[in-house]
Amino acid sequence: MASTTQQPTALERATTAGPVRPTPATTRLSPVPPGAARISAGWWADRQAANGERAIPEGRRHLEEWGNLDNLRIAAGTAGGEVRGPVFADSDVYKWLEAAAWEHGRSPSEQLLADIREVSALVAAAQEEDGYLDSVVAERGSAVEPGPGDPTGSRERYSHLPWSHEHYCAGHLFQAAVAVTRATGERQLLDVAVRLADHLVETFGDGAGQVRDVDGHPVVEMALVELARETGDGRYLELARWFVEARGRGLVAAHGHGPTYFSDRVPVREATTVEGHAVRAVYLAAGAADVAVETGDGELLEALRTQFAHMLATKTYVTGGLGSRWDGEAFGDPHELPSDRAYAETCAAIGGVQWAWRMLLATGDAVYADALERMLFNGFAAGVSLSGEQYFYVNSLHVRSGAHADHERSPAGGRQTWFGCACCPPNVMRTLSSLDGYLATTDARGVQLHQYAPGRVEVDLPGGRVRLDVETRYPWAGTVRVRVEEAPSGTTLALRVPAWAEGASLRRDGHSEDVGPGTYAEARDVREGDLVELELPVRPRWTRPDPRVDDARGCVALERGPLVYAVEECDLPDGVLVDDLVVSEDELPTDAGTDEDLGGAVRVRVRGRRRAPGPEDAVEVLAVPYPTWANRGPGAMRVWLPTT
Amino acid sequence: MASTTQQPTALERATTAGPVRPTPATTRLSPVPPGAARISAGWWADRQAANGERAIPEGRRHLEEWGNLDNLRIAAGTAGGEVRGPVFADSDVYKWLEAAAWEHGRSPSEQLLADIREVSALVAAAQEEDGYLDSVVAERGSAVEPGPGDPTGSRERYSHLPWSHEHYCAGHLFQAAVAVTRATGERQLLDVAVRLADHLVETFGDGAGQVRDVDGHPVVEMALVELARETGDGRYLELARWFVEARGRGLVAAHGHGPTYFSDRVPVREATTVEGHAVRAVYLAAGAADVAVETGDGELLEALRTQFAHMLATKTYVTGGLGSRWDGEAFGDPHELPSDRAYAETCAAIGGVQWAWRMLLATGDAVYADALERMLFNGFAAGVSLSGEQYFYVNSLHVRSGAHADHERSPAGGRQTWFGCACCPPNVMRTLSSLDGYLATTDARGVQLHQYAPGRVEVDLPGGRVRLDVETRYPWAGTVRVRVEEAPSGTTLALRVPAWAEGASLRRDGHSEDVGPGTYAEARDVREGDLVELELPVRPRWTRPDPRVDDARGCVALERGPLVYAVEECDLPDGVLVDDLVVSEDELPTDAGTDEDLGGAVRVRVRGRRRAPGPEDAVEVLAVPYPTWANRGPGAMRVWLPTT
């Protein structure tokens, strides 16, 4: 979509911040302003283009079609009829607004700006006199719990917070308002957000428990912190802190699900793992991380470190997917990671990215950038089609031949254009349109590159401006060339060496040195004209599972660079089922060239054999990157491949 | 509990039939009347004693405590207040009544008879003028669907059949009424049942679809057939036939779950597998089997054969457990059989037994008696504690060390005394109190013994009475001695040789011959004084999984006779977790003596080693029969044991 506005320079746009702007000095690393890091080509640029050109415009149409916008009109009294959709329908509007705002920041468009203004005006009109805003609860009320035999509804505000999602919707509004303000400079939606936030402060703000519940679905915590950062109003941070502290004290118990589901079994600072509903758990943790850094709460931050580490070690799929259970959309027990029934909700991968990003900013620890990359390239990217407008809600690691799609979320049925519960699609949109913000950070010593994509970084450090040009074919190839166009003296350029990159090296001025995986390789005192080249060993490798993951026992996964690979049945010889394939760990797969129909993916040749029934014939198959599976129609697929 | 009534002889009681009495000539085999086959000692006698002495009396107290009986009083207008519990609360009362009736038949007791009369009177009083009976729907209404954002309820009869369970409750009433009539000779409850059945016939009976739905939860089908058998009223059979035929035509779609969940995606006679909610699916199949035999519908029976075979081959746990998903309590795709998240509801094992029994009667095929035995000894028996009054709803095959019980049904939390949704406990009770009926059948040639327990069989054949005395320590030992006390000339005694019993032999008059597993060994023309001895090779054996069952890959299961074994962490050396254990397929486990604290179970010594972390030390553990696990407190457990 061509833009007719005059584009500001990166630095003109970069007067504010991206989705997360910690108060300086509360974190180890600072995010760069929006526009300061730009992806210009390659895998992620293609995803962003599809997102901007198709998904976001389509998204607005879906919000119209599914009633979300009508709900706001009904609440405003400008339309008749009954509100539709789930109780949290407003949140999809807010996520879409956030996506549109960041997209406008990334690629300004009068049309998009007009859309943002129009939809924002619908939101503003639905707000009540005293700031309260929730079209569905106001008009239809919320059920006490989602179970049979409970026909009770109530339109009384905040009377059923475990299920009403009123704070959840407010949180997404705050995030949207911050995005619109930062990306467009316009403050109408921020005014709406501030009025609602003030209303929340008045209603819940004394910390003494005027109401008995916290919201069943976290997100308001990180949103309130960001609103505090944007407005400078400390009451919002204080309210966020109270919501985090109130968690785990049984406030949300006994509402259809137990307290575990709601992250309400154990206080956040005492928890040692993540549990319950995965999206709720990681959203809460991300908000707690925001609270921890803004309040200087080292104990809370340390607890979050422990939880994140335990999640990575025992409750994260090789794809970075989070949440192993359909039932309750929940984290299971440690090492409970079924492939076929992996839930691995797209929203959970997004929440995982948000939490990892906050932990990375807080600590500077490469483990978080590694986790973020794994989640982003696999569990998140698989959630959207290459064309940009079809979505997986659930990201399985195994679909059987002839598997029966008995649910709109079932991966066996392929990606869908929208869902009755449409949390994932606009969540994907806002993540893609704000993705550039995850590439780089700064600190007193210089610039850190955490994720690799061709593009530019232009950012002002205290000593002067840094301009970097990044050239790479990552993730398909492992060479990352960073040309320093400008840098104040003494600037250190730090490049993440992924944990999988055994044998990586850093070259500068013809000198090459080995750099250890899972760390940052540093080029010190870089100057204008310097070329710093990181060489990552991007080639196929087998990954063995933890022996305690039952479903993956006797299997290997194929990885290449940051990507996990999958075998799709459509690539197997006729009559060979994906579950017939057995591979040998001794025979390493090899690159098999680029597939333009799969987003330019490098495919990998896997040689195996066919298990009985039938003779044990040799079988060869070209595996595809996990995020590209199911782009040629739905079908059978495996990530973990049996070796015996 | 001592009985003060004078006990009738077996044959005096055997004037009617057990739970299933097909019209003669519609099936290959005929069940024996209640009391004709009696278990006198051993494993099942102990379970029955605990059931009669503790579970059934406790059950009545639970029905009082949880409001089920009050609901009936409220509907009758003899008590105030609001009805409690799930919409199908009445069905628990009916299952309890059925259990009490069979128990009275098994072991007559004035107290129990008084209880039956009293509870039956509550049921009768709650019935409405025109025969309608459902205390919860009448008083509170039923929600349209069990999902959030649907606060609508309706007290209009049959307006929400997919979720209202009105036919389901009626079905359980019919089964209870048939049981009370057959076991006590009293007909008050049968009159209630007939009035309700007549009302159903009038409301749904023209087959032209006066209402748009069939009940979301089958059971009324087999219950109506049995009521037809008991009363001779063919309209009930016709209604059952119509309910079976109406299935699979999309009547129940789009009510929160898709049609798959409700067994409503494919017509029963066209289905090739079982799918959706496991209990619903097998109850429907059992009812369809009844309809098929009574209407001589060979096509329908053949379809059920195919479905049963596919279930056994691809959707049945080694424990006989059915239903692999917590989400929707459902059968999954073929070979989707997770150990840790196995749902394997106790009720599904019971429904599996009911279906298998009807297929066995219809066909005489040993495969059904084999399946029945596996389900009964493992997936069913694990559902109740040795003490008789604590229940598992869910029968997992793997509980991890430190697993978090986040649900009252979670096996990690151990067995419970009752549940908010209490379908399983009274279902266990009625199964145990009617269990003798599954031991033996008759046909024109003689008597078939399908299940082995010490006891007696006394049954009249056309040519005269057969009296058998069975002596065995089965399942702990493999010798089954059948002494013929009386038999008309030409009687054939057929003894099932289980499919696992490779190397079995039959001895008679000092002559021994090998008999093939998975068949019936026949002793022809048995006469008074004959001793027929079946020798089954009951010893530990390793069972390898289907390679397509991911969760069991690289594992073996320990079996011994009809029992699956489990390793409990409490039996491992200190500090060794159940998930640390690795066994060698090459080393066969050995018997390790009887454990009186575990119901006289023979334990089995398994030698393995401890996997890293830590040195790979040799580890020895005494495995326990699966139905005896979790009788020493909850804890970690595995059925499938890794070999690598």
Automatic annotation (TrEMBL), chains A, B:
Ranges for domain Non-reducing end beta-L-arabinofuranosidase-like GH127 catalytic: 39-436
Protein name, entry field: Glycoside hydrolase family 127 protein
Top-rank lineage group of the source organism: Bacteria
Keywords: Hydrolase
UniProt GO molecular function: hydrolase activity
Keyword presence, Hydrolase: yes
Ranges of residues in domain Non-reducing end beta-L-arabinofuranosidase-like GH127 middle: 447-537
Residue numbers spanned by region Disordered: 1-34
UniProt-listed SUPFAM superfamilies: Six-hairpin glycosidases
Organism whose genome encodes this protein: Pseudokineococcus marinus
GO annotation, biological process: carbohydrate metabolic process
Domain Non-reducing end beta-L-arabinofuranosidase-like GH127 C-terminal, chain residue ranges per copy: 540-642
Database matches in InterPro entries: 6-hairpin_glycosidase_sf (IPR008928), Beta-AFase-like (IPR049174), Beta-AFase-like_GH127_C (IPR049049), Beta-AFase-like_GH127_cat (IPR012878), Beta-AFase-like_GH127_middle (IPR049046)
